[in-house]
Backbone:
């Protein structure tokens, strides 16, 4: 591997030539207004030198050449190539560059690059400058808030492409992730493995004309990532970029927990009512909290009243959030280094990049990534291009500490709020888990391993490391034929290997618990079916993908006509294999292990009546997906005024039954564009650029988990330890692709001098044959693997529409420059067909996460029970059913129909966008990005007395609860009742008062740049040197709903702010 | 240029060859299995493993009937602490019992029935001659599983079988196809029992005498199920004949003298007395919240080993059952040879043959009594014999999912009729014979979606 890279580097360096004779060159650089430009750079292409203009825009050099080709560059201006002649006062005038739309005039679909002027479809582009404005370890962080129509749903705590949507969601249950194309082929690996500094541009394909060339994977939109490549006859450019990011510690103290004192009071109340009696006598000796244990001791006469009170007082003074904040969480750090080199000679273009990232998370998870990438194009003869690219990625992730949310002490139980991780001087404290303290102590006396958990000591002893290695190999051959035909064959091979080794020594509670619970105490000593020693859990996986494409391009222009067309076919295969195993009694010193008996049911220490098998933890999986596609695409333009485009594609895959593959379901699009401003009659001087576009077509989508046949999975270990089958999908012979028809109407415009430039688009989406759930009659006996009685098929339709606006304004020019970028998106959808009888109201109260389509409503929406206040007599929450106010929560929850619920609104923002301002004065630039999301709702958490009593999960709303008549005037939190009524909790938790508006405006990030005048740094051959700072997640400026919760993450803990400092140098 | 032309030709050739090959092979290329562990059932073994899904076919049986019966009582404190509405509502004979969760006593048995129907429909397209023995076992097992679940459902969701009204009384939904387009409809009781008997008789014809595990049905299991069904229909002679046949096929009893009475799980799973192994759903009432009826407990003789094998006494109102034949927390509702002896004896007593009835009963009791203290029981009349047999039926078959059916059928007889009662928070609840709460209501959600008729 290293050897190969060395060769590539050697091959890639160009040979430079030298000439003789000293000549003087001088002049100055100015802008259109004639103002001198200070700090502009002049690249002497063939001499590897760069000049920087001084105060009055002047430059001067002496060199041995008869003439000199220079590239003049300055930030905010269009680069210019110019020829200088000796002893002549050259005046070079740079044109101001507008920041966005016009700059990328080429859009890439992954199959071809199109001139934006001739494209009919809807594209958004992000260029290198826009992308690198953000400091992020991955490409996702560079796109968020920068592109139109692109929305990241961060509710699931996952910040990745899987939660991205373009122009809203287009599917219900099928794959909803936009297709990611890296250069030419769909990227099958982990997007986090791409070095973001190698990305030159990102193109987002939004409508059918843009995306339908991707056929059955296009319905969610396509994101095409283009990497930096070398160019023939280009001087070598070296770029170095490095930054350091510091992230604040998450503010754990903001978690809305019940206070320790309140929690203890509740436990005492429950104890007095006999709530714990059965648990106390339970043969399995389940865990009781320290307060309950003390109350029992007191009842048994082992602890006197005074001591009890003082001990409880002591406990009530503890707050676990303090310990989490002190011991568990820390500030995050991220370092990034990136090096890029590219250029080209007359027959070789090369690009080489190295990237290294090193991160430590707030939970001390450490990861680092090294990416080496090279891409070279060789042109042996005039018409032939041969390209070879290789990317090698190595990634290492170490698991960090467990997050606070994983501190549950027993199944279904969280941790009591007065728990402590450490004593006053910071020594780790034991915490009983799963079983009662008395049992844990007794076990230790019997010679078992220490059964207590010491979270503080153990959290840094986790030894779980994942390694990933990814190799991506591209090869292509393109040949230019006569008559404007170009033939090309491309092939890509990708192999991603990942291994994960999780060594759990007996220092970890997990391992001690596994050993102890199987241990049998006999007269002859201890018998340990799970042997003493470490447990090691290993898995390795391999993904390999091969993609092949053959394509003919045709480009021809004659008179006022221009025709561009492509046609071809491709085949893709992706296989992934995984295997996992678990080894007991592992000795990591000498690599020995102990074989265990997986078949026998062993009695469990805590209850001899219970028997269990040792968990085998061995598993295999082997998945293959294959596609074959045929495609064609063409565009014809006349006189730079009219453009017509059409595309067609057919896909086959191994997922569906043969019937569907044989049925020809083409996905197609047509489009037209009219450059109005190019018409002879067009006279509006104030609006020199005006263009209209209209397209229509179909994009497809697929749900990989469905097939047309009855399928089941083979699973291991039934009651008899034999393999058994579990039905996965019921028969569905009519299964087919989802199709989304898209209309797109667009207008592009620019005012005089590009003071205002932008585009406005309106679209309609019409999804048919969508995969939907039909809540089946449970009597049919069909269950999805997740348990619900349901059936999936092409049962649904959905309609969406929206508006995308992108406007760039140049507010001031001259010394102080101020540009604004307005991104506005409106995206809504509505279910139009769902062949399912309406279910009970509870189905439609899932907080907007679960998808339960209702005709006429947005796909993800929030409903609530009508809330009629609290009963002044007893603090019961009052609802409404059959025309009257009632506190019969059982009836409300079981008999309410959908129409009895209050429709609160959309669960995803219909309005969103960003407002970015870029200011620059001299060498300083400042960029501030505000993002907004408006018009949506979410359901926040609140007190559930059932969760409090049984699950130890309280909520600070407890303090607001109704306690005496009159309280209903100022609170809607119901009173506490015993026994708890679960339907009462369910009613209040899904009622109107706990639904919040999500509308907010956020100061997403700020970047400040200082460009050092390169001439100032001695003789270093630096063309440009930039120092930058960047701050992200700065906070919410305005919000309509609850002040405590971030509506995007729906977390009480705000996204930690991060601060970056970086340097970028171009040689 | 010549060089160019050669390259061009070579490229075009590669292009054309690949184009043709890809087009030609794409059909085969696309036939690859997407997921190796995911299978479209094709072979006998594929269908067999569907029936080996013991969690569906042998577990999660109807359990609300046992909760609503009179074997176990729950103290006020524990009743309030019951987290599961289904258990609380079934225990107090509420109208609404099953509406809280998707997994319940209606949906779980039907999931097993769907698996069985997939197998029965799938096997119809297969050639039996390739492996007739295995084919018969797979098909027979499917019929058996279906019959067993139909029977369990009928006990909970339909009234007791009564010849006089069996054509009018509503039965259950008889799903006998895996075709999801066939709507659900309720049959009457007569049709329900006809279908169940049809299925068991098919199973009886097809099943082998021996299987590898107790979870796999045998001919004896089919006969035992027939005996149970006939007993619930109060067709005692036939029930007795089937039970006798099972016993003579090789009945065995556990000798309780050999069990470790101190153990919290003295009876092992799959022991020799088990004919067929199935279990109900886990329930906190049977786990630790409920106590066995004190009167029932005290009625066991001191010489009766069941008193120490079955019960773990921790205090007043804290008599926990530990005699499950599954050795696990969900109740065992499979069949044992002891049950067969009791059915046989009951049939004999009802025919008036007190002597023979007592002989059969004593075969059982000898294995339950302390070895040196057992004296065969003797009675003066057939009625006394029946009294004694029914008493021991209750004592032997405690928490087996059988009591509800027994109460329902015995309520037809004045002598054995009972009114159930419980006291919760000082309030007395009663359930009189033939009360509509003896028939559980179907989950409202099911009724709403399928439009089937609800029970009163």
Residues:
């Amino acid at each position: 591997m290293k050897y190969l890279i060395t060769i590539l580097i050697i091959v890639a360096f160009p040979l430079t030539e030298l000439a003789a004779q000293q000549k003087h060159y001088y002049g100055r650089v100015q802008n259109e207004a004639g103002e001198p430009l200070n700090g502009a750079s002049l690249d002497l292409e063939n001499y590897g030198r760069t000049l920087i203009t001084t105060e009055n825009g002047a430059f001067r050099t002496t060199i041995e050449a008869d003439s000199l080709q220079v590239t003049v560059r300055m930030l905010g201006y269009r680069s210019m190539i110019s020829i200088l002649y000796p002893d002549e006062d050259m005046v070079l005038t740079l044109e101001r560059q507008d920041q966005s739309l016009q700059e990328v005039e080429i859009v890439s679909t992954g199959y071809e690059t199109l001139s934006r002027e001739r494209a009919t479809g809807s594209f958004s582009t992000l260029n290198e400058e826009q992308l690198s404005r953000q400091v992020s370890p991955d490409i996702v962080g560079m796109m968020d808030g920068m592109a139109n129509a692109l929305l990241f749903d961060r509710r699931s705590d996952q910040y990745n492409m899987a939660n991205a949507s373009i122009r809203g969601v287009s599917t219900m249950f099928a794959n909803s992730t936009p297709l990611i194309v890296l250069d030419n082929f769909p990227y099958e690996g982990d997007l986090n493995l791409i070095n973001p500094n190698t990305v030159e541009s990102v193109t987002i394909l939004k409508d059918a004309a843009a995306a339908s060339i991707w056929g059955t994977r296009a319905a969610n939109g396509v994101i095409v990532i283009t990497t930096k490549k070398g160019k023939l006859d280009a001087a070598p450019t070296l770029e170095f970029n490095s930054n350091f990011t510091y992230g604040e510690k998450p503010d754990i103290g903001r978690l809305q927990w019940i206070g320790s004192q309140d929690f203890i009071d509740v436990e005492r109340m429950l104890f007095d009512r006999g709530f714990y009696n059965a648990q106390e006598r339970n043969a399995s000796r389940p865990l009781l909290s320290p307060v309950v244990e003390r109350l029992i001791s007191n009842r048994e006469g082992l602890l006197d009243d005074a001591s009890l009170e003082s001990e409880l007082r002591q406990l009530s003074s503890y707050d676990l959030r303090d310990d989490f904040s002190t011991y568990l969480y820390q500030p995050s750090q991220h370092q990034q280094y990136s090096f890029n080199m590219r250029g080209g000679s007359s027959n070789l273009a090369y690009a080489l990049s190295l990237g290294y990232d090193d991160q430590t998370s707030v939970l001390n998870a450490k990861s680092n990534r090294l990416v080496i990438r090279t891409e070279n194009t060789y042109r042996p003869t005039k018409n032939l291009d041969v390209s070879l690219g290789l990317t090698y990625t190595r990634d290492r992730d170490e698991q960090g500490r467990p997050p606070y949310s994983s501190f549950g002490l027993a199944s279904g139980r969280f941790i009591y709020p007065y728990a402590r991780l450490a004593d006053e001087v910071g020594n780790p404290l034991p915490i009983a888990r799963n079983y009662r303290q008395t049992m844990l102590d007794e076990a230790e006396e019997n010679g078992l391993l220490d059964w207590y958990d010491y979270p503080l000591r153990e959290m840094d002893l986790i030894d779980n490391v994942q390694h990933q290695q990814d190799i991506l190999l591209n090869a292509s051959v393109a040949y230019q034929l006569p008559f404007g035909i170009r033939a090309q064959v491309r092939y890509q091979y990708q192999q991603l290997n990942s291994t994960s080794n999780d060594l759990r020594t007996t220092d970890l509670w997990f391992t001690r618990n596994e050993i102890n619970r199987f241990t049998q105490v006999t007269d002859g000593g201890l018998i340990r079916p799970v042997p003493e020693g470490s447990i090691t859990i290993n898995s390795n996986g391999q993904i390999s993908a091969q993609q092949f494409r053959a394509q003919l391009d045709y480009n021809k222009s004659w008179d006022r006509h221009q025709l561009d067309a492509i046609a071809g076919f491709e085949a893709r295969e992706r296989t992934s294999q995984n295997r996992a195993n678990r080894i007991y009694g592992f000795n990591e010193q000498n690599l020995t292990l102990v074989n265990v008996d997986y078949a026998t049911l062993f009695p469990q220490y805590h209850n001899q009546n219970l028997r269990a098998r040792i968990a085998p933890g061995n598993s295999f999986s082997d998945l293959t997906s294959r596609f074959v596609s045929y495609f064609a695409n063409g565009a014809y333009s006349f006189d730079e005024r009219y453009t017509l485009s059409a595309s067609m594609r057919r896909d086959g895959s191994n997922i569906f039954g043969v019937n569907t593959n044989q049925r020809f379901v083409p996905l197609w699009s047509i489009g037209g564009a009219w450059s109005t401003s190019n018409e002879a009659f067009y006279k509006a001087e104030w609006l020199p650029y005006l263009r209209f576009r209209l397209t229509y077509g179909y994009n497809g989508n697929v749900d990989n988990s469905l097939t047309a046949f009855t399928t089941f999975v083979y699973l291991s270990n039934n009651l008899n330890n034999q393999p058994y089958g579990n039905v996965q999908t019921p028969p569905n012979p009519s299964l087919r692709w989802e199709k989304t028809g898209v209309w797109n109407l667009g207008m592009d415009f620019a005012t005089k001098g590009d003071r205002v430039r932008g585009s406005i688009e309106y679209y309609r989406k019409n999804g048919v044959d969508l995969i939907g759930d039909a809540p089946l009659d449970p009597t049919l006996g069909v269950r999805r693997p997740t348990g619900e009685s349901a059936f999936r098929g092409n049962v649904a339709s959905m309609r969406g529409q929206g508006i995308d606006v992108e406007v760039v304004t140049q507010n001031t020019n001259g010394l102080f420059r101020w540009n604004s970028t307005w991104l506005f998106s409106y995206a809504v959808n509505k279910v139009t067909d769902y062949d399912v009888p309406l279910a009970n109201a509870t189905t439609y109260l899932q907080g907007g996460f679960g998808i339960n389509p209702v005709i006429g409503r947005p796909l993800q929406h929030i409903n609530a029970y009508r809330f009629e206040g609290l009963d002044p007599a007893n603090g019961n929450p009052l609802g409404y059913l059959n025309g009257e106010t009632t506190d019969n929560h059982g009836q409300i929850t079981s008999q309410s129909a959908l129409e009895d619920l209050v429709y609160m609104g959309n669960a995803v923002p219909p309005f969103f966008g960003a407002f970015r301002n870029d200011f620059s004065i001299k060498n300083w630039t400042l960029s501030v990005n505000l993002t907004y999301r408006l018009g949506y709702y979410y359901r926040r958490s609140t007190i559930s007395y059932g969760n409090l009593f049984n699950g130890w999960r309280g909520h600070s709303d407890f303090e607001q609860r109704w306690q005496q008549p009159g309280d209903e005037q100022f609170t809607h939190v119901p009173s506490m009742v015993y026994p708890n009524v679960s339907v009462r909790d369910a009613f209040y938790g899904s009622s109107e008062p706990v639904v919040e508006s999500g509308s907010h405006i956020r100061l997403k990030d700020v970047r400040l740049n200082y460009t050092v005048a390169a001439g100032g740094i001695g003789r270093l051959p630096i063309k440009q040197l930039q120092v930058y700072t960047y701050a992200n997640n700065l906070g919410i400026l305005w919000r309509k709903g609850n002040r405590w919760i971030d509506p995007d993450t729906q977390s009480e803990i705000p996204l930690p702010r991060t601060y970056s400092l970086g340097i970028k140098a171009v040689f | 240029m010549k060089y160019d032309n050669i390259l061009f030709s070579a490229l075009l050739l590669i292009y054309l060859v690949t184009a043709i090959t890809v087009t030609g092979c794409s059909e085969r290329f696309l036939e690859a299995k997407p997921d190796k562990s995911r299978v479209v059932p094709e072979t006998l073994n594929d269908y067999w493993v569907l029936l080996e899904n013991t969690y569906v076919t042998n577990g999660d049986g109807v359990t609300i009937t046992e909760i609503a019966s009179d074997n176990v009582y729950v103290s006020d404190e524990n009743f309030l602490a019951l987290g599961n509405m289904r258990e609380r509502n079934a225990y107090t004979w509420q109208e609404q019992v099953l509406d809280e969760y998707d997994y319940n006593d209606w949906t779980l048995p039907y999931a097993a029935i769907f698996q069985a129907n997939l197998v029965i429909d799938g096997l119809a397209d297969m050639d039996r001659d390739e492996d007739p023995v295995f084919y018969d076992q797979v098909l027979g097992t499917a019929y058996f599983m279906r019959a067993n679940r139909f029977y369990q459902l009928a006990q909970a969701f339909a009234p007791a079988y009564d010849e006089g009204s069996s054509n009018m009384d509503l039965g259950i939904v008889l799903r006998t196809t895996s075709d999801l387009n066939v709507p659900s409809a309720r049959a009457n009781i007569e049709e329900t029992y006809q279908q169940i008997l049809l299925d068991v008789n098919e199973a009886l014809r097809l099943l082998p005498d021996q299987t590898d595990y107790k979870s796999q049905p045998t001919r004896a299991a089919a006969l035992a199920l027939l005996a149970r069904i006939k007993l619930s229909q109060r067709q005692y002679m036939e029930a007795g004949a089937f039970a006798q046949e099972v016993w003579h096929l090789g009945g065995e009893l556990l000798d309780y003298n050999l069990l470790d009475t101190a153990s919290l799980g003295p009876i092992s799973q799959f022991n020799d007395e088990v004919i067929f192994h199935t279990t109900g759903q886990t329930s906190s009432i049977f786990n630790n919240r409920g106590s066995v009826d004190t009167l029932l407990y005290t009625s066991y003789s001191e010489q009766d080993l069941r008193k120490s094998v079955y019960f773990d006494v921790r205090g007043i109102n804290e008599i926990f059952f530990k005699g499950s034949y599954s050795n696990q927390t969900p109740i065992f509702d499979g069949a044992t040879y002891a049950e067969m002896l009791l059915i046989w004896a009951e049939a004999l007593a009802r025919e008036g043959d007190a002597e023979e009835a007592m002989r059969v009963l004593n075969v059982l009791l000898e294995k339950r009594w302390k070895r040196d203290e057992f004296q065969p029981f003797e009675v003066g009349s057939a009625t006394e014999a029946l009294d004694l047999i029914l008493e021991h039926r209750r004592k032997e078959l405690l928490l087996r999912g059988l009591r509800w059916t027994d109460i329902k059928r015995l309520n037809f007889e004045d002598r054995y009729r009972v009114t159930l009662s419980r006291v919760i928070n000082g309030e007395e609840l009663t359930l009189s014979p033939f009360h509509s709460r003896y028939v559980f209501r179907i989950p409202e959600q099911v009724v709403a979606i399928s439009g089937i008729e609800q029970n009163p």
